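Q: Sequence in, structure out?
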Amino acid sequence: MNTLVSPVSADAVIPARGAIGDVAAVVERLAREGRAAQRELARMTSEARASALRFAAEALRDAAPIILEANAQDVADGVAAGLSSAMVDRLKLDSARIEAIAATVAQVASLDDPVGQVMDETHRPNGMTLRRVRVPIGLIGIIYESRPNVTADAAALCVRSGNAALLRGGSEAVRSNSAIHSALVAGLVAGGVPAAAVQLMPTQDRAAVGAMLAAAGLIDMIVPRGGKSLVARVQADARVPVLAHLDGINHTFVDRAADPAMARDIALNAKMRRTGVCGAMETLLVDALFPDPQGLVAPLLDAGCELRGDARACAIDFRIAPADADDWDTEYLDAVLSVAVVDGLDGALSHIATHASGHTDAIVTDDSDAAARFLSEVDSAIVMHNASSQFADGGEFGLGAEIGIATGRLHARGPVALEGLTTYKWLVLGSGQVRP
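A: Exactly. Output:
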């Protein structure tokens, strides 16, 4: 596989800045090329697409030194620019993370292909047979920030499900994204996939985002992955259907009937395993009748987490600072946590209904009735019982990877993987029927 990726320097993989002509025209050209490539991709067999992804996984492994060199420059620039520790953590790659990226691409190749799946079949009294069959959506635009692994994850999911991808990563990861994209495409092409099936926007000009959002009829769906301002802009300006991934203002409610040791372990993991991921807990809700609130908050404080609480939470431990009104609606993505003491399940449900973002919310309890009510009444994409919110991840759900966690209510919800990147069409099989 070493012949798939040329040994170029990290600087050589920086996308061109400026001097690419009219940005809207560039986006239109890329979209048309992507649509043509998608038609070729859709004609490939499922095994051929899977095989190409396995080539791509090996190409990523072979290109690890180039990717690491590119990433080191991005990280250095990010630190110099004052990126937060959480943003730097999202951006930084090492050998283990590159191996995980490659392994994810290979895993996606092994997943069942949803394309062509018969969703249901009915037989009409007039003798016609009707089938609903899964088909690719088409050309999917992915606009994302910080995490270079999204370049590979999104591309792999799109290719496996017969979709083409037009990627627009953030400027903070420009070298990393380009290095990953170059290796990935080299592997895909070696496996017979047209190069234009996975394209990376060749400019960081913000006008490119606007052009993608306006490309109705060329781009079939936009998936934004990033901060609140990015997603808000995409939703406000898009003329293309959007599959939105909003804030992860995730709650863990520790019920009065929770096992104290389990509650402690879940809360610590939900916040501190990785603070910069969208599944991290941002608010801890503690039942006023929970027997050991000190044992719940002390491990978090001892681990270096800053806690901001309401008056009753502040009374638990002198190290908890008073929260302000904005804290309950903040996705910290850092070692900061809001804590509120609530009056039982009703208090928790009321707080979540007011402040949750619809991403992931969890209850810790041994009371099956309380758990059942929480699972039923919390209207989030992912609702958990006795588990850490850090499991809010497509890989952990057995989906291989995810293109994002959709927090809306239409088309797809929760981790969006292969099935979420398909739509369906009706096949009507007749034998000469005419309608009276």
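Residues 250-396 form a domain with the Aldehyde Dehydrogenase; Chain A, domain 2 fold (CATH 3.40.309.10).
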